[in-house]
Design a protein that fits this description.
The structure holds two protein chains of two kinds. Chain A is mostly beta strands. Helix content of chain A is about 0%, strand content about 60%. In chain A, the strands form two sheets. In chain A, strands 2, 4, 5, 9, 10 and 11 form a six-stranded mixed beta sheet that branches. Chain A has a five-stranded antiparallel beta sheet with strand order 1-3-8-7-6, with no helix packed on it. By secondary structure, chain B is mostly beta strands. In chain B, strands 2, 4, 5, 6, 9, 10 and 11 form a seven-stranded mixed beta sheet that branches. A four-stranded antiparallel beta sheet of chain B has the order 1-3-8-7, with no helix packed on it. The chains are: A mainly beta, B mainly beta.
Chain lengths: ~110, ~120
């Protein structure tokens, strides 16, 4: 079983839709949770970072962590074509980082 | 803040050439830097972790003599692909983590696309 599971998609939504991206994990030691956005031929860009259960909001983005279910989500409200990218979840514990495989998102104008 | 600069962004060279890639943290000190390789439509594959002033820790299956890593200062790490061959062609990405504790996230450079002819 992989440490982090993420549906690779691809996910295609119309502009303005709410997008939900998810990851599950198996290691209860994970303490810190991150979401990265990666455009084609670019490095990942840190979007959200949290270390506790609950929600964290930043503009159109909301990161949700449920440690009891070992499940994290990223919600994108009012999605835009510029949100089209691959989204990677990441988690860390004991100075080790684990990345999901990434979900490819396309927002159609 | 937290900007990581990676150079060059693109390299095309002949087989047998050695290629050096630089990774710099521009506005923070990075005690730890990571080097990844990414194949098309795949996730990041960690190659090695380097801490400033010490030898890099390589992941299983990564050749130390092939991929030389130097982390001589708190803002600079280099990856040298020695005697590169076509199978080394890939997208290489570095990341840096600021000092200040294990809760610091990684910040990534924009990657280097290496093509060996």
């Amino acid at each position: 079983q992989k440490e982090v599971e993420q549906d690779p998609g691809p996910l295609s939504v119309p502009e303005g839709a709410i997008v939900s991206l998810n990851c599950t994990y198996s290691n209860s030691a994970f303490q810190y949770f991150m979401w990265y956005r990666q455009y084609s031929r670019k490095g990942p860009e840190l979007l959200m970072y949290t270390y506790s259960s609950g929600n964290k909001e930043d503009g159109r983005f909301t990161a949700q962590v449920d440690k009891s279910s070992k499940y994290i989500s990223l919600f994108i409200r009012d999605s835009q074509p510029s949100d089209s990218a691959t989204y990677l979840c990441a988690m860390s514990a004991n100075n080790q980082f684990y990345f999901g495989t990434g979900t490819s998102l396309t927002v159609i104008p | 803040g937290a900007v990581v600069s990676q150079h060059p962004s693109r390299v095309i060279c002949k087989s047998g050439t050695s290629v050096k890639i630089e990774c710099r943290s521009l506005d923070f000190q990075a005690t730890t830097m990571f080097w990844y390789r990414q194949f098309p439509k795949q996730s990041l594959m960690l190659m090695a972790t380097s801490n400033e002033g010490s030898k890099a820790t390589y992941e299983q299956g990564v050749e130390k003599d092939k991929f030389l890593i130097n982390h001589a200062s708190l803002t600079l790490s280099t990856l040298t692909v020695t005697s590169a061959h076509p199978e080394d062609s890939s997208f290489y990405i570095c990341s840096a983590r600021a000092s200040g504790g294990p809760y610091q996230p990684q910040h990534f450079g924009d990657g280097t696309r290496l093509s060996i002819l």
